[in-house]
Amino acid sequence: MTTKLVHSFILSFVFLTSNSQDIPLYIGTYTSGNSEGIYKMTFNTKTGVLHDLQLAVKAENPSFLAFSPKKNYLYAVGEGQTSAVMAFKMKPDGYLQHINTENSEGKGPCHISINQEGNLAVVSNYGGGTVSFLPINTNGALSEASQVFNHNTETEKAHAHSAKFFKNDIYVADLGRNALYQYQLKDTKYQLKSDSLIETTGNPGPRHFEITKDGQFIYIINEYGGSITSIKKIGNGFKMIDYDSTLDPDFKGKNKCADIHLSHDERFLYGSNRGENTIAVFKRDTKTGEIDKIQSISVHGDWPRNFTLDPTGNFLLVANKLSENIAVYSIDKNSGQLTFLHDVKVPTPVCLLF
């Protein structure tokens, strides 16, 4: 084999190896500015390079996204005038094909989760203070809501902000009622088990939360409190075991926490600060569940509404809404700490989904 052929073979091998690490990233946005809907980009899980921005499908304010278990369908809430929940089919080229749209049964839908069977979606309606359950057909299409729970009372305005399935339970963070709700599946319907897993004081504003794989610990990030509440399962209930600030002690400005995620091995916890514009990094004791802050790092942008870890657990990506960019960080798996790599411009990114 000639030197030229050997060189060509090596280049081809490197190219193929690099491309084998490329995976799609889907980006939810607000469409009041330059955005037109849901975008997709290519992310290299070996290098951390994020590139090739493309419009995957036009949609109005697709602010939060979720995959079906097999990733053959994608679902989005639309925070427009119609309070929409949208279903899309994944095409072979990575673009999205609209299947149908249903009503979220509440104003301002802001979050959606899909169960492990892929046959039910739960939608949190921030403005309406309701939680809706929408069955999913075998072709990926959404059906009308089969159950709607209204968290509002005569004296308190609810703001349901996020919900997650865990086995036969659904947990819902309600920022307006300062509570974490628990629903349990009874026969074929969900029923309320608790409208407040723990007692809260003041107005912390629980927004998003993470549940450990064994279901023994839940970590709630508080939008108004600039904090994380750590709770542990005790018998049939829960108790608070830790309460930690996400902010630097010297920070004096206004702040609203947003998103929270555990590392894949659950040894570290990450939370985003909108205002301080940082990611707070915590080391987690996997036995006791308690956390300690070990790093605060700039998001290299403004208003980190959402962030995610890539499937390898080697990278963390932050969606900065107001500065319209996505910042990419490498993760030291030994220490959990982040190192900034680069950022790319994206129109109004507010949700990232691998």
UniProtKB/TrEMBL annotation:
GO function terms (MF aspect): 6-phosphogluconolactonase activity
Gene Ontology biological-process entries: glucose metabolic process
Domain of life per record: Bacteria
GO CC field: cytosol
Secreted found in the keyword field: no
Keywords: Carbohydrate metabolism, Glucose metabolism
UniProt record similarity statement: Belongs to the cycloisomerase 2 family.
Protein name: Lactonase family protein
Species of provenance: Allotamlana fucoidanivorans
